[in-house]
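Field reference: sequence -> structure
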Amino acid sequence: MSVSCGVEWVVVLGCLRWAWKRCTYVGSDDSKTWPLATPDEFEPVPRVCRITLAVYETDLRNPQFPPEGGYRLNPDWVLKRVTYEQTNGCAPPYLIYADHDMKEIVVAIRGLNLAKESDYKLLLNNRLGMQMFDGGYVHHGLLESAVWLLNEESETLRRLWEETGREYQMIFAGHSLGSGVAALLTVVVVNHTHRLGGIPRSKIRCYAVAPARCMSLNLAVKYADIIHSIVLQDDFLPRTATPLEDIFKSIFCLPCLLFLVCLRDTFVPEGRKLRDPRRLYAPGRMYHIVERKFCRCGRFPPEVRTAIPVDERFEHIVLSFNATSDHGIVWIEREAEKALKIMREKKSETMTVPPKIQKLERLQTIKKEHKDALERAVSLNIPHAITTGEQLSVKEGTETQAHKRDTPKPKAESSSRGTNWDEVVEELFTRSNSGNLIVKKDLDTLQIQ
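Structure field:
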């Protein structure tokens, strides 16, 4: 009798301890050890958020829901706007914007539309471990959407980049559902830069706002030098390891689902999560905007922390009233603008060395952080993780193969015939007996398993 009572008390105390830790866990705990971002590296974020938010407008000359201060865009520089009717459900709406002031070509993709069945079909087109790509796993439906978009717009982007003197940055941005498309679009382009006129990797950037979990951990770390994820405080989507297709099946009972996921993940060891190659994560380097603290009422002046986390990469659901509201791009743009303004004010007050020296030091720090993250992934035995040296050799090999493919072709042929990104996928994939696409260099690994 006494033994059973003791066991009951142990179970009760264990449940109380778990409940206390979960209820007191706040979004700022995820990044409490991260360093603060600098205004130079965070400067594009509010601007990219405004361009992405502009996709939701039907007429930029007469906007219905402009952010504070307006969109600050030149409507004449919007080169193309694509709606649901034009995409036929293959991709979310997007626009192509040439920012001649900042020398950027921006492809901005909107987020999930709860009223559009095509967006749900895009999310549901996936199963756990269904799609391999570049040595990792990705969301099948989002990859298909990215390939479709590139198939439609690659010639436009190539021509635009060449007409602007090959000096502009190529920026891919998206919110929520669009962030996953933008991230995978970036990965495909980086592996085939010759298809966009030979644009170098250093001129390609991706900003995933309120990012969806769309790629395995080794890919998320591998592309952290060009993909940047922006998370506002308690946003549920980057933290929910449950597949996207299951989340949005239960969108109208989301709090219940998040609680059950939180309960389930409590009993899953961290090592088991890291060793599962099919588990998807938010991509790239993380920028966490923090504006609330535990047991403190109201919002505080936001600060931005940044890192390339490997273990503990937004793995814990935050049981918060703001878990869904922090996902809205309107709030993200507003808080990002406030944070940037605060960072600039602090920088002007504490500047002691010339800005060029500061930029150079920060650039070296960013490169070192990426190298350390790659080595950390290898040390944790994450499937398919590679070191910095291996990444450079793969990059050089890809560029050599691209040069060999392009050298024999006359200019007239390459200019008269559009790039077919389906051919790019066929180069990377082979079809299994069931008809699914499997990346060629991973076939041996799958057969061994």
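Note: Residues 355-379 form the longest helix (25 residues).
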